[in-house]
Amino acid sequence: MRKFAFLGPRGTFSDEAARLFADATDEATASSDFLECATIPEVFEAVRSGAADFGTVPIENSLEGSVTITLDELALGSQVVILDEAVLDIHHCLVAAPGARKADIGTVISHPQALGQCAQWILRTLPGRPVIARNSTAEAVRQAQEHPGYAAIASAFAAELYGAEILERNIEDRPNNQTNFVLIAGEERAAEHRAAQGESGGQGQSERPYKTSIALFMWANKPGALLMILAEFAYAGINLTKIESRPTKEAMGEYMFFLDFEGRADDPDVVIALDSLRLKLREVKVLGTYRAA
Predict the structure, then answer these.
(1) pLDDT for 193-242, tens place per residue?
(2) Of 118, 188, 217, 257, which residue has the fewest beta carbons closer than 10 angstroms?
(3) 1 vs 32: CA distance, rounded Å
């Protein structure tokens, strides 16, 4: 039986994504079990320790940008690789205990990403109410059920699962709100998964092009460092689809770069570009080669 860890409790968008990944895998003869984790680092720890075969974590939202804790865990933790990605449409609801009215709401709680995605709606509709972060949207629903005057921002799925009342639907600030979730695994389990899928990448996936994610660590911050990195990909004719920087957590002013690009890590042009960067940088860490959503 395969076990999928996700940011719980049940009813989160990560829960939905985990079940999509479980349904999509080619290991169709194997049944799946799901492990609820209280935080994103706990999902990574479950995968690293072997408590779960796979993990599902959010990595980027179309409104709020990257989920930085996921990037840091991928880049700075022991080796865990990305196997797949899935983009979910995200629709938020204002959720409270049965019988509650919007006029009774004095406090709004949810995951920080959900709060950010609904910030303008909260400001217009519930001005002056305290906004409190919780570890997940589903946890917020459970707590809103227990505390009169509290309302959670969560999915309709979570509201139905916990028997809560939906006071208003589709409260996200932009209609094109989407979140990209990635499937992660340790290197040994990842190799088994790739072998089980074969070169086709699984039923219905052969049309999806490949992409690769990497993290780059410099020896020192110096003029032209980013230009040098970009030039290697330009010379090789590799199309970058994302680039951003994050602190290395080692010293003030020291940064690492995250890049996504089209193609596989073992494509000849990609190999040349990455090997050239390895001669100039402290570390080039491949976070995963996988089918693009």
Answers:
(1) 777 766 444 445 568 899 999 999 988 877 888 899 999 999 999 999 99
(2) 188
(3) 6
Tokens (6 digits) for 101: 């009215």
* Ramachandran sector of residue 105 (left: φ over 0; alpha: ψ -120 to 50; beta: rest): beta
Residue 274: how many other CB atoms lie within 10 Å: 22
DSSP per-residue string spanning 103-171: GG--EEEE-HHHHHHTHHHHHHHSTT--EEE-S-HHHHHHHHHHSTTEEEEE-HHHHHHHT-EEEEE--
Task: Tell me the pLDDT tens digit for each residue of 40-55.
Answer: 999 999 999 999 999 9
Which residues make Cβ contacts (< 8 Å) with residue 265, sequence separation at least 6? 212, 214, 271, 274, 286, 289
Give 3-state DSSP helix, strand, coil % of the chain, rounded to 5: 35, 30, 35
For tokens 């959670």, the residue is 152
Residues 36, 72, 81: CA angle, nearest 5 degrees: 70
Residues 6+ away with beta carbon under 8 Å from 274: 214, 265, 284, 286
d(CA 121, CA 133): 16
Angle, helices 40-49/68-76, rounded to nearest 10 degrees: 30
Q: How far apart are CA 246 and CA 258, in angstroms?
A: 8
Mean pLDDT of the chain: 90
CA 254/CA 138 separation, integer angstroms: 36
What are the catalytic residues? 179, 181
Phi, psi of 114 (to 5 degrees): -65, -40
